[in-house]
Amino acid sequence: MFRISFITLALCFTVHLYSQEKKYADTTDSKPLSAKVERKVRPGERLQISVYGHDELPKEAIVGADGTIKYPFMKDIKVDGMTLEQFSNVLAARLSQYIGGRAEVVVAFAQEEMIEVIVLGQVNSPGALKIPKNHTIQGAISAAGGATPRCDLNKTRIIRRNHETGLREDITIPLETIIIETGNVEKLKDLQDGDIIFVPAIYGAVYANVLGAVRNPGNYPLFPGANVIDVVFLAGGPEDDASIRSIKLVRRIGATQTEQIVDIETVLKAKGGQVPLVEPGDIIFVPAKKFTFKTILTVLQYTITFITAYYLYKQATRN
Asked: How many helices (H) and strands (E) does the chain have?
């Protein structure tokens, strides 16, 4: 009799665990588009966990970079992407297998601790801002509007006061190398309250100056691989009276200045013609044609105006 009751109890407990796992699976199904999007658990977030009647269990857990948490009986289970309800159901099902009976679990996002940092230099919105304490330097730059095209991310600096020694620390972070080449964001320094983040500019100019017969003369930022045609059209393209067969590409190398004549018309007509690339600091001068129909009309207008004025003057003096 006791054996039958024990088997019945075991079957009931197995069915209960299955229902919990099924409940979690149901919560992962897609919901109508009109449903409110719930906040998901993400790496780096702190979760407050309360298990009724079991104060010996941890009250807090941090989601690791791999999406798992260090918590009893939750080894190697990824929680990244779960809602709090889904995570709570999985945790309750796992704990119930070990603590005996149904585990009553309450999970909440821990209130994020904020720090204040100052982001200066080549960012779109420099200044002081408050960010979550677990943000990296990359997150701080993003919060400041992101870096500008002139930035030198590999020379990004963190300037802070060492609380133990009282001395100022100046730390250089090769941000671009860490993120792009290694992809290991764990190498990024943790930020502290009061940190100053400085994103320097690339040494020298990253602009080219376009002058002459173009629609919008001025300085224009270069993109990788930009050639003379690209930059001329960044300036609105050539005017109707532009001489595109004699564009000057002026470049200064140290104390020496070089000039190269670029015949865009010939290059465009030739298949596979090479267009010179533009380097930071270059000057592109698009000359106007010496004699065009437009300039002839202008000369004729001035001539007619002058003759008419002279004729009227003579008539007035005779009277």
From this structure: 7, 13
pLDDT in tens, 204-241: 667 888 998 999 998 888 877 889 998 999 999 899 88
Which distant-in-sequence residues (6+ apart) come within 8 Å of 249 by Cβ?
A: 228, 259, 260, 261, 262, 276, 278, 282, 283, 284
Q: Where are the alpha helices (DSSP H) in the chain?
A: 2-27, 84-99, 137-143, 175-176, 228-234, 264-269, 293-318
pLDDT of 21 higher than 70: no
What does pTM read for this prediction?
Answer: 0.41
- Domains in the chain (CATH in brackets) are 2-28+37-109 (3.30.1950.10), 114-199 (3.10.560.10), 207-286 (3.10.560.10)
Coil, strand, or helix at residue 88? helix
Q: What is the pLDDT of residue 287?
A: 93
For residue 72, the SS3 value is coil
Q: Minimal CA–CA distance to 19: which of 84, 99, 98, 102? A: 102
> Which has the closest alpha carbon to 90: 16, 15, 25?
25
Where are the extended beta strands (E) located within 93-189? 105-109, 114-121, 127-132, 156-161, 168-173
> Which among 94, 110, 92 has a CA at the least distance from the CA of 48?
110
Mean pLDDT of the chain: 78
* The predicted structure's pLDDT at residue 101: 74
Q: Are 71 and 48 in contact (CB under 8 A)?
A: no
Distance of alpha carbon 121 from alpha carbon 198, whole angstroms: 5
Do residues 51 and 104 touch, judged by C-beta distance below 8 A? yes
Alpha-carbon gap, residue 183 to 71, rounded angstroms: 27
Question: What span, in angstroms and rounded, lies between the C-alpha atoms of 310 and 60?
Answer: 96
The half-sphere exposure of 89 on its side-chain side, counting CA atoms within 13 A, is: 17
pLDDT band at 57 (very low <50, low <70, confident <90, very high): confident
* DSSP symbol at 178: I
